[in-house]
Amino acid sequence: MPKIQMLNMEGKSIQEVELKEDIFNIEVNEHAVYLVVKNILANRRQGTQSAKTRAEVRGGGRKPWRQKGTGRARQGSIRSPQWKGGGVVFAPKPRDYSYTTPKKVRRLALKSVLTSKVQENELILVDALKLEETKTKAMVQALKALKAAKKSLILVGEGNESVARAAKNIAGVKVLNIQNINVYDLLKYDSLILDQEALNKIQEVY
């Protein structure tokens, strides 16, 4: 069973905590992670891109020159795709890119990323994410004490808005509610910081 040191906000070790075997110590499935990240990015696409086909471009009703006898190639419209200002052959149109992946695949991917965080020593466990004052300076000092990377993801429970406000203006740091945990954000940041409450929630749900 994997173990990790629990720290306080000053960066001092308090106790050793055992992590759940089937969440933080599984065989990493890279393909499942790939599928879920691909799905997340697809769902985030707006799908609002649009261009006009030759039927939608204004003008081009008159044949530019007669069919034969000019020595030039025959043309039916100045709005054909080969003309400047013409329509686009396979013009992109607004569409919905979103789709779903199976729940089992999403869970496997999340567990794989959490396992990799433990294996690569990128998981920082804190007893309680609390600041004496809700200021950016206090948050910066706490991150230094915890030896967090410049790009850090902080998972908090419900009602912990002070940490989110304090970290709002720190570049490379993101605060995420434990309910919104996702594979993409876990991979994007080099350090994962969570407190005892968030850890219990993860081990309870997954």
TrEMBL record:
Pfam families tied to this protein: Ribosomal_L4
Top-level taxon in the UniProt lineage: Bacteria
Keywords from the UniProt entry: Ribonucleoprotein, Ribosomal protein, RNA-binding, rRNA-binding
Amino acid composition bias (Basic residues), ranges on this chain: 60-71
CC terms in the record's Gene Ontology section: ribonucleoprotein complex; ribosome
Region feature Disordered, mapped onto this chain: 47-79
One biological process term in Gene Ontology: translation
InterPro entries: Ribosomal_uL4, Ribosomal_uL4-like, Ribosomal_uL4_dom_sf
GO molecular function: rRNA binding; structural constituent of ribosome
Family membership noted in the UniProt record: Belongs to the universal ribosomal protein uL4 family.
Function text: Forms part of the polypeptide exit tunnel. One of the primary rRNA binding proteins, this protein initially binds near the 5'-end of the 23S rRNA. It is important during the early stages of 50S assembly. It makes multiple contacts with different domains of the 23S rRNA in the assembled 50S subunit and ribosome.
PANTHER family per record: 50S RIBOSOMAL PROTEIN L4, LARGE RIBOSOMAL SUBUNIT PROTEIN UL4M
Subunit description: Part of the 50S ribosomal subunit.
HAMAP family reported in the protein's UniProt record: Ribosomal_uL4_B (MF_01328_B)
UniProt-recorded name of the protein: Large ribosomal subunit protein uL4
Organism: Urinicoccus massiliensis
Source taxonomy: Bacteria, Bacillati, Bacillota, Tissierellia, Tissierellales
Designated gene of the protein: rplD
